[in-house]
């Protein structure tokens, strides 16, 4: 189903003008009329590019909500609303961190005009739960960096921010059903959405998820240009990881039988958007491609054991502290942005994902 948009195009320029009148510094990236996907005058919810662009815009809306709060932009000065109103979403609820009172997420409800409604089946959501990435500005930077460190330590699930996030997800799903809910996030927010999606998937609830530049905690092997060296390092890493995993799991399972959580998660297939120029997420490319290469040379069994473990988590387990690696997932629709980027900021930015001229490579990876 297609919906014609554009009813709120004048809101963003008005907000920007009001902000300028009051002497407030406005970033071009925050202004929907300057940086938003205005080319989407019609949204076809069955179009992957359109769904990706809307999801990314809603994530950006959360970021601008927090920036509006930080610089006290209110009413007509606020720049956030056009990021969701343009697509006929309403802000249902803000998700606020209980430590620093920053806005880290939002629940959006799709409210199309009656003239755009019909009973046909499409892929539009009823609700989108979106999470922003790290903001390096006073008012949020300290807490955001603490949470970034919790990702590195595989402890994000222990934080109060994630508890707020997962409770919101559970409540919305319980109210409207899993088929009507999307998850979306960028960077730190993608890690939050990923963990929420994994948590729900373990209970048999599979939510459609759009994960932009999600962090992958690993040595930057993907940055190595020599393919033979890169492949050799990955094989060595797989053998070491698989060996440690076999030893650790053998000891822990001597007196118990447990279901493989990785296999349980394999039916959940999030959309994973990465840029090879972004070292925070680029390792996902090699992570998935390496599985097929290991199968091709006849040692796929080693990689199937290695792919669901990380050296860091295995060492933590050996020291008596269970640590499930957040970033490892069995299946995904991996979408790689091959469009050249000028620098890291562009490669990591959320705004790349609604560009109409992206050169992308997409592949479905199913864990077996």
Automatic annotation (TrEMBL):
A Pfam cross-reference name: Lipase_3
Which superkingdom? Eukaryota
Asked if the Swiss-Prot or TrEMBL record annotates the protein with the keyword Calcium, the reply is no
Query: Sorted alphabetically, which keywords does the UniProt record give?
Result: Hydrolase
SUPFAM superfamilies assigned to the protein according to its UniProt record, in alphabetical order: alpha/beta-Hydrolases (SSF53474)
| Matches recorded under InterPro entries | AB_hydrolase_fold, Fungal_lipase-type
Q: Which GO terms describe its biological process?
A: lipid metabolic process
Give start and end of each Fungal lipase-type domain: 163-206
Any GO molecular function: hydrolase activity
Q: What is this protein called?
A: Fungal lipase-type domain-containing protein
């Amino acid at each position: 189903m297609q919906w014609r948009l554009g009813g709120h195009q004048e809101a963003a320029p008005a907000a920007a003008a009001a902000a300028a009148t009051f002497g407030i510094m406005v970033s071009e990236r925050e202004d929907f009329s300057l940086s938003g996907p205005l080319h989407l005058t019609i949204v076809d919810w069955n179009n992957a590019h359109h769904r990706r662009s809307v999801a990314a815009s809603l994530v950006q809306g959360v970021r601008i909500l927090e920036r509006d709060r930080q610089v006290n932009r209110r009413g007509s000065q606020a720049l956030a609303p056009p990021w969701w109103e343009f697509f006929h979403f309403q802000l249902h609820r803000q998700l606020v961190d209980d430590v620093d009172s920053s806005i880290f997420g939002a629940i959006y409800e799709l409210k199309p005009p009656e003239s755009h409604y019909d009973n046909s089946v499409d892929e539009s959501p009823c609700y989108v739960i979106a999470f922003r990435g790290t903001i390096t500005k006073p008012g949020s930077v300290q807490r955001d960096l603490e949470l970034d460190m919790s990702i590195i330590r595989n402890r994000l699930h222990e934080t109060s921010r994630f508890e707020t996030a997962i409770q919101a997800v559970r409540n919305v799903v319980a109210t409207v059903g899993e088929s009507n809910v999307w998850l979306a996030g960028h960077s730190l927010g993608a890690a939050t959405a990923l963990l929420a999606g994994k948590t729900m998937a373990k209970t048999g609830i599979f939510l459609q998820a759009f994960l932009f530049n999600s962090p992958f905690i690993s040595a930057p092997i993907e940055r190595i240009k020599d393919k033979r060296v890169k492949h050799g390092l990955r094989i060595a890493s797989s053998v070491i990881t698989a060996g440690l995993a076999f030893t650790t799991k053998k000891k822990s399972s001597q007196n118990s039988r447990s279901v493989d959580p990785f296999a349980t998660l394999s039916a959940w297939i999030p959309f994973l958007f990465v840029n090879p120029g972004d070292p925070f997420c680029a390792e996902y490319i090699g992570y998935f491609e390496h599985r097929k290469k290991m199968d091709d040379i006849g040692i796929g069994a080693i990689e199937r054991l290695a792919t669901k473990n990380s050296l860091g988590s295995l060492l933590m387990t050996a020291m008596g502290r269970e640590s499930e690696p957040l970033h490892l997932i069995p299946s995904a629709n991996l979408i790689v942005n091959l469009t050249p980027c000028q620098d890291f900021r562009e490669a990591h930015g959320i705004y790349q994902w609604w560009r109409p001229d992206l050169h992308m490579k997409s592949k479905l990876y199913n864990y077996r």
